User: Which sequence fits this backbone?
């Protein structure tokens, strides 16, 4: 493919530089990414000062920032019963996400890999899984609570379930659709057994897909934990949101939402770092 | 001349889902001697790649047999190195690890493997690119690595499936001369699939000219010119003309 992509590849030797493979370089540029948030904050603040809604329901930017910082530090007490306890809820959510994500991710990769390698297994299993997949995670909540009670287990169950599907589908796809010419190359080099071909070619060539599944799964894991915590648990960001809603504290609701965004974004970046560390061959 | 590769009474028929049969190869017998450079030349659909795949063991004949050194070929193996049209390098391995990826090499002590790898990389002129990944190389360089990878595993024969077809003219002619040099240094038996007449005459000791539907060898032409060859010499042109005539006969008899 890339051979055709580069018609100018020409007299080869002078194109790519010998010696050190090209690395990444930091470059300072105008922070374009700030433009949209700044506009959004200005609009928000303007709307808040117009007092179309009571300040409690539509707080000013200053109030939100103070409350958010107070949940972290406990300096002003403006977050009331959430003052200084941000990390308690963050850890509660993170613990559930880590356990559920691990269970769902590992089983998704393992079952997806087996389904990708063995067509018969896929034929047996996949239709049933595809039938379960359209059921929204929320719809599992009553059963999850009925089976696992209140607290961590129903949340972990939901997260594992939500993580499983994307990792399974992507892993299976990556394993199944390996470029056949790479398999041929490995076979002519002397590798004959399925296990050799798997460890030498199939696994590596499926890694990009596996990571895609893991990243989609991570986003879903955070969705699931918030959903579960709204209904089944008394801690975590999801609980914080719902609890604050019961007291009509929009500043706390928004603090909870921002927290989920920040933590979700941070974990996605971590996953990306892991992906780059493992898949060194891709820029 | 001893037979290195030998295919006898080969047939390969593909049956489509609608039940129609395509005779990709119909009654082909060919023997290739040790250290010989043989091209399979013909238009697309003449079965030249199918024939190569039978030698490689990627495919099996519907009828007939293929042998390497008198032993029947039933599967791919390290005794037959293959260079594919699309380089088929492992993107996750550095150039040096691609070249050292063969199973025979992996079985050797690391030090010895490193020496073989650097010798092969030097042969294709890519010592300085050992630590690069394939995507950092140009098309011509990838194909050099692919040749080095196949040779490093110490095969008996080298099977090349239109290896230069996707390259631009300059790179192609550069790689052609390098292949002649590599062939005269290693004395490997090479089977080379191409649809390019000049390329076949430039490289081969013998050219198996094939025609399509059904895929058959129409004639085998000896190219009795010393290598490296001059594509502008009268002898070269005479052989080219003869090959072209045979190919045209094949095409026109197709039309009648």
Assistant:
């Amino acid at each position: 493919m890339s051979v055709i992509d580069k018609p100018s590849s020409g007299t080869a030797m002078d194109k790519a530089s010998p010696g050190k493979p090209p690395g990444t370089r930091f470059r300072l540029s105008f922070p374009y990414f700030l433009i949209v948030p700044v506009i959004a904050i200005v609009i928000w603040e303007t709307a808040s000062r117009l007092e179309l809604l009571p300040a409690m329901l539509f707080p000013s930017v200053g109030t939100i920032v103070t409350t958010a910082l107070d949940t972290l530090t406990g300096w002003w007490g403006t977050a009331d019963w959430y003052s200084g306890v941000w990390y308690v809820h963050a850890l509660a959510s993170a613990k559930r996400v880590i356990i559920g994500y691990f269970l769902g991710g590992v089983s998704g990769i393992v079952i997806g890999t087996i389904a990708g390698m063995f067509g018969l297994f896929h034929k047996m299993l996949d239709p049933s899984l595809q039938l379960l997949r359209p059921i929204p995670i929320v719809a599992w909540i009553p059963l999850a609570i009925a089976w696992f009670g209140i607290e961590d287990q129903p949340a972990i169950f939901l997260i594992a379930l939500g993580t499983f599907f994307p990792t399974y589908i992507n892993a299976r796809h990556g394993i199944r659709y390996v470029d056949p010419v790479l398999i041929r190359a490995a076979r002519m080099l002397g590798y004959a057994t399925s296990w050799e071909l798997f460890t030498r070619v199939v696994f590596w060539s499926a890694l990009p897909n596996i990571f895609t599944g893991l990243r989609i799964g991570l986003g879903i894991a955070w969705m699931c934990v918030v959903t579960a915590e709204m209904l089944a648990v008394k801690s975590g960001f999801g609980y914080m949101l719902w609890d604050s809603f019961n007291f009509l504290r929009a500043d706390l609701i928004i603090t909870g939402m921002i927290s989920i965004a920040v933590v979700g974004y941070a974990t996605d970046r971590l996953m990306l770092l892991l992906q780059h560390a493992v898949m060194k061959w891709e820029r | 001349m001893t037979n290195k590769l030998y295919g006898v009474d080969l047939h390969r028929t593909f049956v489509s889902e609608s039940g129609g049969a395509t005779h990709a190869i119909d009654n082909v017998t060919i023997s290739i001697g040790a250290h010989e450079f043989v091209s399979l030349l013909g238009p697309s659909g003449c079965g030249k790649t199918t024939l190569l795949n039978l030698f490689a063991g990627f495919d099996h004949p519907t009828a007939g047999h293929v042998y390497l050194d008198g032993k029947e070929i039933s599967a791919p193996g390290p005794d037959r190195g293959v260079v594919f049209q699309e380089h088929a390098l492992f993107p996750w391995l550095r150039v040096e690890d691609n070249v050292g990826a063969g199973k025979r090499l992996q079985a050797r002590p690391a030090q010895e493997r490193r020496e073989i790898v650097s010798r092969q990389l030097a042969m294709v002129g890519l010592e300085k690119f050992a630590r690069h990944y394939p995507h950092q190389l140009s098309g011509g360089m990838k194909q050099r690595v692919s040749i080095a990878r196949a040779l490093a595993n110490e095969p008996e024969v080298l099977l090349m499936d239109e290896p230069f077809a996707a390259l631009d003219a300059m790179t192609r002619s550069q790689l052609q001369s390098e292949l002649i040099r590599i062939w005269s240094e290693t004395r490997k038996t090479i089977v080379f699939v191409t649809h390019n007449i000049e390329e076949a005459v430039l490289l081969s000791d013998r050219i198996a000219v094939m025609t399509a539907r059904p895929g058959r060898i129409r004639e085998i032409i000896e190219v009795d010119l010393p290598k490296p060859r001059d594509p502008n010499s009268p002898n070269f042109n005479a052989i080219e003309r003869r090959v072209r005539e045979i190919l045209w006969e094949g095409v026109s008899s197709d039309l009648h």
